[in-house]
Amino acid sequence: MTDVRTPDAVEFLDRLLERSERNPDRSRPASAAPEYDRLSTAQQVSRFHDQMAAAERFGAVELLRGKRDRSHLIERVRVRDPELLARHLGRPPAPATAQRVRNELLPVATAGEPWVVGLLDEMTARWTRNEPAYRLAAGQADAAKEFFTLLASISRQEAKGLDARTFSQKATNDTKAFDRHASRLAAVLGVQIGQPGAAADVVWAHIGLERFSHPVHLKGPIVVDGASGRVVDGRAKPFASIHPEMLSQLSVLVRPTAVLTIENYASFNRQVREIEDGSLVVYTGGFPAAGVIELLSKVLLTVPAEVPFLHWGDVDAGGLRIFRYLEENLPRGPQPHLMTKELAEKAGQPADPEPSLGSIARSESAIRNLADWLAFGSDVRHLEQEALEPRSVVPAADHGLG
């Protein structure tokens, strides 16, 4: 291997190689003018010239010299053969490195769903151009293996119902691996669930991961009985809290007049304090965690199908995505409560359209028309549910039915 120990020469040639690898189909070879202002002495200039001449003899670059009185200077260095230039610099070409890393990661990726292998192909294409992918360079093979181990496990639904540390330990034998990759996991999974750029807690809810297991707040005719008697009574004032681990002991005392889920904590508090209509009210905590979904699933499978199920949330992109998530993950979907275009036009604030809601608008969702307005309509307005007074979800004559 040719000696290229002069730092300025190595840095210069590295940048040239990077340009070549990032655009392998370019019509003209990558080239650059030497930065003579960084070479402050005649000795440094001479050493730089020697290193460029060595690269030229190796067949890696072509030197274009000045004319007449500048013939002693190199005016431009042009890449002749990127593969030879990589060898001259003492490293394999980026495509070779990318393929080697892909071969190492493929058994890990194929242990997951097909989309995990698709992601590996996407990242390999970027590594081939000497670009990082999700802030991982091809040279970070160990970190990439950890990342794909987590992704493959998530794709197999193995994160569901676990906190981050427990899941991380089970997937990788390292409790902190998930934290090291959390931001890139959220970025990848956000795209996978059709919500690019979604907040991390939204993504974790989709995969059933609970960073911390929270109790479910509710008010209504359900109880938890233990060996020594009643542990939780959902009729307690102002409301009760049931930990997900108690759900196997949960039972519905009497048929509620309705089931209502509420996105916002302030609205939940007002509803359970101000409205007495015999309904079961459940706080989703924003995007519902796995425990909320499990509780609601059990309740909806227990109560008769004619018991209305409704959801009250914000009229904005986040609120509609929460509504859609409930539709997609429960035995039956809710109907909207106080989530209408008319209320938003009356009490909401001006907002820009959100085209990403187009997928909900094209679905069979109970809020598809609202999604279509928010995605493509004119004079769009967003409505935070706190702007509205709580309202009963059942007719006055039905209040208190059991």
From TrEMBL:
InterPro entries according to UniProt: DUF3322, JetD_C
Annotated region described as Disordered, given as residue ranges: 18-38
Residues in Wadjet protein JetD C-terminal domain copies: 234-394
Domain DUF3322: 24-189
Pfam families in the cross-refs: DUF3322 (PF11795), JetD_C (PF09983)
Regions of compositional bias (Basic and acidic residues) in chain numbering: 18-28
Signal peptide: none
Record protein name field: Wadjet protein JetD C-terminal domain-containing protein
Organism: Bradyrhizobium archetypum
